[in-house]
Batch of 4 targets.
Target 1
Amino acid sequence: MPLCLVCAPGRLAAQAREESTWGPGFGQRSLYVLHVPFFFFGPADTRPIERGDSEWTLATAYANTFSHSWHAPKVHEDLGPPGTPFRPDEADRIHQSFPQETVWFVDGEALRASLEGRVGLARAFSLTVEIPYVSHDAFTLDSFIASFHRAFGLGQAGRTEFPNGSFVLMFQPSDGTMTFDGRRPRAGIGDVSAIFSWRPLAHRGGTSYGLDLALKAPTGSSRDDNGSGSWDGGLRLFAARPGRRWILQGEAGIVFLGSWKAPLGISPSSVGRLLIGAAYRLSSATWMGASVTYEQSPFRKAGLGAVSRAGMEVALGLERGLSRRLAARATVTEHMSALGDRADIGFSVQLRYHP
């Protein structure tokens, strides 16, 4: 379940304006390379916003993904040499030698920057629009991750067999066809999304709840994995309970995905998501928290091993108010490798401005 680091105290009647600037939880929408083209919920912002008010968020997030069945590192070790890119002829060798086995190899990085605006429409209702920009080769942290693994005596799981900054997608369901994509996607605008939100006033004791309806438009390039090429929609419910210094939050949501017009030919399915989180106020201007996210894979019906299984990730974050109108936050996410695939590690930085 997504334990969403919930940093969302908002404009409760008993709170001062200075304490109403804290935003959503510290979790992150999925940045697994295969999930980036689709709409995924990030943590909910539980605060209501008054009619005519607005809030603007500039965010940058990076994630690294490296996942495979045993086939790719072994075949590359034999055909290599090590340190060279994985090639189509190696994928063909795997298909010819193991046509009945489930095979996958996902190696890539994503940098996702976004500008988000939230506007109050009427009492308890608001609209949020997000415009993302996606790059898969802005920079690479592959060597840093490999060095980190060596420093702590962790295995490389085949990372050092391939060049830093590689981008490879290879899939073969059991007794199915092999698909391979090793070209470098071009950076560009991703799919723009809008969320219509309902945030009634908090109940007695401070408990709040709400509902979000989301719609994503196919404005990005599906060929370059910046968008899916189709419309997506989503529904989310949440509840939050503030204490003297703590905030607890839970969410449940589902996303209905359209087709994926990428060359890989994998059909997505709807995605269910559960979230629970907590945040702690260190001072009047500083919050910290932790989160866990449990989410289905959009490829759960594709029969692709870990790629098709539901995954879980944890997040740690810190937010600091820089002024009454400006706040900054940083979040780190790490996946639980025993379950399905998510991004191995991710980082995000946000600036939020309330005019």
Note: Residues 17-353 form a domain with the Porin fold (CATH 2.40.160.40).
Target 2
Amino acid sequence: MSRFFEQPASDKIIPLERFRSGKSLSPIRQAEAYWHALRDGATVPRRSQIDPRGLENILNYTFVVERIAPGIARFRLAGHHLNELAGMEVRGMPLTCFFTPAARGQISAVLEHTFDAPSVAELTLKSAARRGAAPLEARMILLPLQGEHEVVDRALGVLIGDGPVGNTPHRFEIGTTSLLPVTGGQKQPVTSAKPTPTPGFAEPQKPMTAAIPHLRLVT
């Protein structure tokens, strides 16, 4: 059994129901409230504190990424909704796989802010227009986490499309981006240099698997 599904050392589960204020509360807000509940003062929560039982009603939209190089993070865990949006299994792939070549420099800059500041990042997204398919709007949040040795190199996130998934894969452009430092402050728009196009997927696409309403661990 993976460490993700083990009971945290604190033996304390914080259920999302504690933060609900009605059906209008989105998975983005629920994940943010859960993350804040795990904080100790102004510190960043530890990856080991995350318990899937506390996130069970939004697991389909939830993911965990790990920083592997400056501006690059790969999926360690991903809910089924992300696989649906990509049209394939995304675990082990970089977060940039969800973005157009023109937007990959922007998301890399956002990742650097998330890990280095650290900051909570929230983005509005819109899929690139394709023949016979309406653009899909989506939202994403990245919530920094401490990995080993108290280094902030993980992030808990939510990605959710606003509408039917339709034809896949979806590649998103970034609409607005806001950052909120963990220590407080006002959200500020992110600016980045003109992005350099990068190659597409490094791995061949795989057919979508059956819906599995939980996160998976990359071994």
Note: The radius of gyration is 16 Å.
Target 3
Amino acid sequence: MPMLETVRGDLTDSTVGFVKFLPFQKPTDMVLAGSGTLVSAGGVRAILTAEYVISNLPNSGPIGLIVPTRQGPMRHRTIIYMEHVRKIPIAKGKDDSKGPDIGLFIPALTDWDLLPSGKIFYNLSKRRERMLNDPPPTDKGAWALCGMVAEWTGELPKEKGYEHGKSFNGMCGPVVLANQRQEGGFDYFSVQVAYNESYEGPESFGGCSGGGLWHLLIKERSDGSLEIFDSLLAGVAFYQSAKENDRKTIECHGRRSIYETVVKEFEKRVD
């Protein structure tokens, strides 16, 4: 979808990833531990992700934060310490494929200063009324999934000042909305990718858990061409199915889960 290139930078600005260190290996190794979206509500900043992601991060010691930018690859070492992080597990169901699976990750205030310039916190409060009371029809526009991809992790050559380096790569790629449902106070979107001759995405979406599902609104220009005029955070990915008939389904929380339940958690538990 060529139009996606016009907003890919905007989506990247709010996307982050998590890195776990494996200190018992020499040199210390690193693995991708999930994705998230920078959000704010009521003036408080957080990373919106899957509960599975935050529960699998350590409760103490360092982790890495991947902070992709629209300028392209950037070598960095962004470290935060889990002793100063607030994990807010909003909900986790017994069946991984059905959900719920959503949570918030809130580092110390000083940790936000580590982010490079240009990273954007998507304001949930600003869009709450619209997304709950007058959301755009789901059959209009297009859909994109943004997150880091584990199978695209690579090794970097040694460089002065770094003991060990890895490259973590992600995607903001088109998906198709296949189904939507409500269950147990949460709503869900099921999106799909088709592994056809034009597909350029990953074989597996491992690492995308916690990543953002975006609804891209499209309008027609006066010359008849189309353009994306708005990008709305509409979901949080938490599960990928096995491939079936050359298709794979990614389960995501939907709009009400974010703009009602998550924002209420900001109001109740963040002070």
Note: Residues 2-269 form one domain.
Target 4
Amino acid sequence: MSELDTGSTKPDFDPKKAEAFAGRLVSALNDAAFCLMLSIGYRTGLLDAMRDQPPMTSRDIASRAGLDERYVREWLGAMTTAGAVEVDPSSSLFSLPAENAAFLTRAAGADNMAVFAQIVAVLGEVENDIVECFRKGGGVPYEKYPRFHAVLAEDQTVLNSLESHILPLVPGLADRLTQGIRVLDVGCGSGRVMIRLAELYPNSRFAGMDLSPEAIGRARGEAAQKGLHNTDFIVRDLSDFDQTADAESFDFVTTLDAVHDQARPLNVLKGIFRTLKPDGVYLMQDINGSSHVHKDIGHPLGTFLYTASCMHCMTVSLAQGGEGLGAMWGEEKTRDYLQRAGFRSVETHQLAHDLFNNWYVVTK
């Protein structure tokens, strides 16, 4: 690409730098399209239908998944050119390599990256609303994201490592849960973690609070379906949690990527401090990043996380007239907020399988 091609005549213009960036844009367009096709392949069951199967025609794949062959054929074109699916040119048979299926199907469990590809499509649904917010300010409310909680509920990262990696972050916690304690998940979403813990530790009681009636409805429904009697899920605006939280009521409190999108995050943290017993523990999962953008250059998921923040986390807070803290508030600001809430001991942990988050073990 030349200076003439770009329309630039600046003396310090670097054509090689421009050409490299143009190549980056071409890759971005392909990768964005790939994410959309991954989302469709995951939602329709195409990826699952191809796992552990011999090479098949587009018609066989469509039949196995119960879908229209013409759409499946075009989808296969996108997936093949993306390198996710392989084709034998002599027979036009398509296959999903086992190495790729290990990250793209429901059987992959916590390694399933296709779940997160859905987020790209979900965020795209509110692009017009976000553009208006850029022009006029304000935010986009939770109800504009009808599939967001359903997508997050499919993420198995926390559930699959709950007993092996997460609970051991707090020494002696598993024993206390076995004996029986009170647990609260603030911003619980669909409540899957509390439901799993309620199944594992029937002597303990588990509560979850969330602003979304849709999410709480899902949590209540799943708990009822499983016949659990030690859970309680509540629709609640936590903006005044610093004043309304029941004092010294819970032995263990969690937030799972929930603080940064609250309208009043500091009030939420003060409420957690208020409701935690003197010897209690607060376990906070939140985004692994820095409070300084230049330190996030090179972050393996930096662009994705800032985008998700702009198009969901930040804007749902602003829609409530909130602070709009954003997902990339970073460890420095996280520690500052925790100290301002009253906490004195903050330990930061990272789990090898979790690229998204830091795990903070916090006590009074």
Note: The first strand starts at residue 86 and ends at 88.
